[in-house]
Amino acid sequence: MYKSLIRPLLFNFDPEKVHYFTFDALKFLFKIPGVSMLLKNKFQMNDPRLERKVFGLTFKNPVGLAAGFDKNAVLYKELDQLGFGFVEIGTVTPKGQPGNDKTRLFRLKEDSAIINRMGFNNEGVEAAVKRLKTNKNVLIGGNIGKNKITPNEEAVSDYKICFEALFNYVDYFVVNVSSPNTPNLRALQDKEPLTALLNTLQQLNLSKPKPKPILLKIAPDLSDDQLLDIIEIVSVTGIAGVIATNTTISRDKLQSKNKIEMGGLSGKPLKHRSTEVIRFLSEKSNKAFPIIGVGGIHSAEDALEKLEAGASLIQLYTGFIYEGPGLIKEINKAILSSTNKI
What we know:
Blueprint: H1 2-10, H2 15-31, H3 35-43, E1 52-54, E2 57-59, E3 63-65, H4 76-81, E4 86-92, E5 105-108, E6 113-116, H5 125-132, E7 140-144, H6 155-166, E8 172-176, H7 191-206, E9 214-218, H8 224-237, E10 241-244, E11 264-267, H9 271-284, E12 291-294, H10 300-309, E13 313-316, H11 318-323, H12 326-337
Parallel strand pairs: 3-4, 3-13, 4-7, 7-8, 8-9, 9-10, 10-12, 12-13
Antiparallel strand pairs: 1-2, 5-6, 6-11
Helix pairs in contact: 6-7, 7-8, 8-9, 9-10, 10-12
């Protein structure tokens, strides 16, 4: 029903407007008596064999929602009821900011992809905290970044502000230095500034009675030498793991006319490269740390490929938009029936 009826209707309208319309519609639907139970029965798959224990946390299933969809922690409860094993909110910044000028979100239908140049548009970390205070049992990741006007030399301060504000309300943290849509942000992926940033956050983390896992989200456009640096940085700083990968600036072999737009590309064209990065990190590190695999997952087979490459968990974003919530259950079914028992 989603791909034959709902998606064609939604895809007739501006992507960003549709995004907020969908949020409002889901909020309304879940308030109707009986709808919540109906949707949970349709989309959730509760089986103890799907549980995963990763970096000290127990995930009810390995299929999560990537950051960028629920930036402001508005819909995480409803998304949890659609079957996700965990929801990552953000990217949040210390202060709210409007992001880049519109139009800034583009569908590439022929490529089953999306280009965005949103620019960390969000209401600020305190707005997310306010909503997360009512969370009861949704496993939440907090994706943190810096404000656009904050120079890189002062970026550590922004990450510390977000870390402190969210600490009591998220289960793990993700340091986002890999978005292509904030000027000069990716320069923070260089070895020296990245090591300094992660060391600072980890020292702050270890000062807490119960530290939280800190993960690093990396770009798919890193070279092999840079990926080797990432492995070393994870070891030196002692962070919990890596999310591979963020969106790409590559436009290789795209068919859609919107391929000329600036921004980060996500969806099917990213599938191969993100799997390459996962496999490289897993093999070269000798599986020294967990990896959350994200990028181009549009089918159960795509998900199994990421897990077989070395991912401990996976996340959806563009595949969720193109394939619908039924994809979550399809993946979990495939995991249970996999001969490799991933």
